[in-house]
Amino acid sequence: MTEKEEVGKSLVFPIQGHDTCPHCGCEERIYQSQIKTMKENGEMDKELFPKGPVEARPLFDQSKPIMVSQLSITNPKIPIMMEYYDICANPKCLEKYTTSIELIWQEIQIPKAPLNLGRGGQQLPPGFPFGQR
Ligand SMILES: [Zn+2]
User: Fold this and answer.
1) Total-model pTM
2) Which domain holds residue 38?
3) 17 CA → ligand 1 middle, Å
4) Ligand 1 centroid vs 124 CA: distance in angstroms?
5) Is residue 27 part of a domain?
6) Distance 90 CA to ligand 1 centre (A)
7) pLDDT exceeds 90 at position 130
8) Whole-number mean pLDDT of the chain?
9) Segment 68-99, tens digit of pLDDT
10) 114: in domain
11) In what order do the strands lie in the sheet containing 15-16?
């Protein structure tokens, strides 16, 4: 079996990305150094951006409403792909690269309304994006 055939079959999160620029090898990162400077100057809370900037993409099919049961104790969860990235600080490179990828399961907060049994039970607010069956 070649290495190529295994790609995609054995994804285990979190996936460790690049520590240094894969293009030029530069160790300096633009976001990382800017965030560090701002924290040192007290311009940013030290808890923010612990792993650098991140793009979060919820992965769900909007045509398939998530089941919401009144009797369910736990809220439904949707998978969110977290892509941490940075930009090479070499001014001749400036390559954007991924530093790590995580997959998290985010619990959806369902509004808890009092049960109103005589009138069709719990109602979700109008426009609630996930639907109800
Ligand atoms: Zn670079």
Assistant:
1) 0.69
2) 18-109
3) 14
4) 49
5) yes
6) 5
7) no
8) 83
9) 666 777 788 889 999 999 999 999 999 999 99
10) no
11) 15-16, 96-107, 77-87, 54-58
Inside any domain, residue 25:
yes
- How many domains does the chain fold into? 1
Q: List the shell of residues around ion ligand 1, using CB closer than 5 Å.
A: 21, 23-24, 26, 88, 90, 93, 95
Q: What angle do CA 99, 100, 103 make, to 5 degrees?
A: 155
Write the burial class of residue 86 (CB in 10 Å: 0-12 exposed, 13-18 middle, 19+ buried). buried
What is residue 115's predicted lDDT score, i.e. its pLDDT?
58
Give 96 Cα–ligand 1 centroid separation in angstroms. Answer: 8
- Taking the centre of ligand 1 as the mean of its atom positions, its distance from the CA of residue 54, in whole angstroms, is 19
